[in-house]
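Most newcomers find our protein records easier to grasp once they have seen one. To make this concrete, we reproduce a full record directly below:

…
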Amino acid sequence: MQKFSLGALFFVLMIVTGLTGCMTTAGEENNPWSETPYMEGEVTEGSYEAAPLTAPPSAPEIPAPRSPQPDPPEEVIVNTPLWYDNLADWAEADTRPALTSFRRSCKSWVKAKPDAALNKNLPDYGTYRDWLPACAKAKFASQTKDGARAFFENEFAPLSLKTLTEDSGTLTGYYEPEIDVRLTPDKTFREPILAKPTNSAVLKKPRSQINANSSRVIAYGRPIDVFFMQIQGSGRLKYQDGRSLRAAYAANNGKPYTSIGRVLVERGEMKLSSASKQSIESWMEKNGPEKTRALMNENPRYIFFAEQAVTIDELGVEEGPRGAMEVPLTEMGSIAVDPRYHPYGTLMWLETTLPQEGGDYQGKETGLLVSAQDTGKAIRGALRGDLFFGSGDEAGARAGVMKHDVRWRVLVPKSIAPSQPVS
C-alpha cells in the first residue's frame, strides 16, 4: 500500500516518531477557522471545483512478480517442522480470508517463470513451480470454514519460525481510511486531494509549495483526514452523491517524512502520552488554519493519488487496496512483512492477540492465517509484521490499538517441507 507510517499504542509511536502506512468539530462561536481564507488565501469557497473521473478505471491487471529480489537477510532464521496439532487455535480458525488472499497471490505467480526462486536469497521457500499445484487446487477449494482449513492442511506443512535470539516478534495493524469529500471547498472540506501532476517540476516541490493549482483536484477533504490518508498511502473517498472511489497511491514528491506529532511534542504543545490522531485534530481545531497549515508543512513529504473503482472479485469478495505485491489486500488475510525474510505471497500462521473493537488494548489471544503481500518502512526483521484490518472507521479503530507479541509459523508446500518430526 506504499505506507509511510503504521498502527493507539503503535499509532502514538508512529505519529510521534514517524516510523512509517496509519475528532471533535469546533462550533462557529470562537471558531478560528470561520474568518480565515482557505489554502493560505489561494482557495475560496466555491473555487477550484474538483473534476473527478466519471468512470474511474479498476486497478491495472495483476502483474508477474517483480524483480530484482530484495537485499539478503541480516539475521539467521530457524525453521522447525511442526504438526498442525502444534498450532494454537488452528482447529477453530477461519482460514477463508487466507484462502482469498492466497488465490490473489496466485494470479501473480502464474505469470512468473516456473523455475525461478521466490527469493534467490531464501532457497527454503522453493520455486514458483513448487507452489503452482496448490494454486491450481485453490481455485476449487471449498468456501466453507472447514473446507478452507482442509485445503491448507492437504497442501502445506507448518514450520516454526524464529531467529537465533528471538522466538517471537511484534505485530501491529494498518487499514484503508474512508473519508468524506466534497467537489468544492468550504470551511470544513478544504484540503485538496491531488492527482499525479503532469508537470514533473511539481514532483520536486515540498508540501508547502503544493496547492490546488499544482495538479488536478480529485476532491476536497478535511485537512486531518487527507493528511493521514497520505500517511496510510491510500483511502476511500465518499462523495455526497453516493459514489465511493478508491484513492490509490500514484506518486510522491521524493521528500523525507517528518512526524507532526513529534513536532508538537518537541515544542511542548503535546505530551507524548497523549499524542494521537484525535489530539492532533483537536490541536488543529483550536489553533486554526494558518497554524494548521504551518504544522502540516513541517512534513515536506506529499502523496498524490489516482482514482480507482472499488471492485468485487469473481467470488463476490470486495477487493482491497493494492499492496507491495501489487495484488488486492484482503481484510484479516494480508500482512506486511520484511521481504528480505518472507517472499511475497507466502503463508504465515500468526499466534497473537487481536483487539475485538476500538479501544480494546487487551485483546483476545487467537491464531490466524495470512499471506505476505505488503511491506512498509517500519517493518524490519524476520518476526515483525503489520496486519491489514480492512477499510473504514471500525477497521481503523482496531488497527490503531494493535500492538502485541506474535509467534510465527510458516506454511510451505509439502513437496519442499523438511521431514515432519516423529509423533
